[in-house]
Design a protein that fits this description.
about 325 residues; mainly alpha; Leucine-rich Repeat Variant
């Protein structure tokens, strides 16, 4: 098919979007991108949204495609849903040149969903800065923008909570206090983000609190607590997670508990996962099998936690 045929198909709202035309957009040339730039604004808004969401899904499920030039172009689209999806599509892009545009969107975009997407994306660069894989100056630019957002009075809750999650990667002073303030926020969505941030922080300070939250009546908070226990490899959580894997009424919480058991590793976690494999629940069996495979891949036969279970943090 010719490139003009591809653009014609994308523009035709009366044709069902065909995935093979989308694949053909991967790795486009400079001239093709310029032609795409001309045609894209003429496509109906609903169709642009559909194309962008479909491209993001392809990127998430295939490492063979690259639509970054299109995503970068679409970050300036007039429609906020297209802009937010374009940011999501760049989730693997680690070019520090992306920090500036993301910071601009976080600070200036009129749409909360775009600002939230930008906050999420900046978290990746905070982590890269901590790992010294990008220059410190642009990493600090990302952190400063996130801190401004967190402390900005009147900012949308969704944007602020995503900024809290993103800043959790930072080793700078004050991050623990930010997470703690989010945990004690009256809004449960912010509390969930705080638990998520605890897992990202690599800070053993949160272990006792996370163990308590495994019993929270709110399923979203239990889910985040279970994931965070896995991220921090909290071996004391294994008995609680094993019980959740079998007994929790929420399917997503069960899955998080199983994942965390696989992440923590050790004989007790392995025994719990093997017991899950003997159940009559096909979904639970598959999740446990995947967790055991991951444990074997990492060579974890005996648990080697990130932090010993001393009381100094409790």
């Amino acid at each position: 098919m010719s490139y003009e045929e591809i653009l014609l198909h994308l523009s035709n709202i009366h044709e069902r979007l065909n995935i093979r035309y989308l694949y053909a957009l991967s790795g486009i040339t400079h001239d093709q991108l310029e032609r795409f730039r001309q045609v894209w604004p003429t496509i109906e808004r609903a169709r642009r949204r559909l194309v962008m969401r479909s491209l993001v899904e392809l990127v998430e499920h295939s490492f063979e495609v690259n639509f970054d030039p299109i995503f970068l172009l679409a970050m300036a689209d007039e429609d906020s849903e297209v802009r937010a999806a374009a940011i999501d599509g760049l989730w693997e892009n680690e070019d520090q040149a992306l920090i500036g545009p993301l910071v601009h969107l976080l600070r200036a975009d009129e749409a909360a969903n775009v600002r939230a997407a930008a906050a999420i994306a900046l978290g990746r660069f905070v982590l890269l800065g901590e790992l010294e894989e990008i220059d410190r100056a642009p990493a600090m630019l990302a952190e400063e923008a996130l801190l401004e957002t967190i402390h900005q009075a009147g900012e949308d809750l969704e944007v602020r909570r995503r900024a809290v999650e993103a800043i959790a990667y930072s080793g700078e002073a004050g991050v623990r206090e930010i997470i703690e303030a989010a945990y004690y926020d009256e809004d449960e969505k912010m509390q969930a983000s705080a638990l998520f941030a605890m897992g990202r922080s690599a800070d053993p300070y949160w272990r006792k609190l996370l163990l308590k939250e495994l019993r929270n009546p709110n399923s979203e908070l239990r889910f985040e607590a279970a994931r965070a226990c896995g991220e921090l490899e909290i071996s004391l959580a294994v008995p609680h997670l094993a019980r959740m894997a079998f007994e929790d009424a929420d399917r997503e919480v069960q899955g998080a508990a199983v994942w965390a058991l696989g992440r923590i590793g050790g004989r007790e976690a392995r025994a719990a996962l093997e017991a899950c494999c003997q159940s009559d629940d096909e979904v639970l069996i598959q999740a446990a099998t995947d967790a055991l495979d991951e444990m074997d891949l990492m060579g974890e036969i005996v648990a080697i936690p990130l932090y010993e279970d001393f009381d100094e943090y409790e």
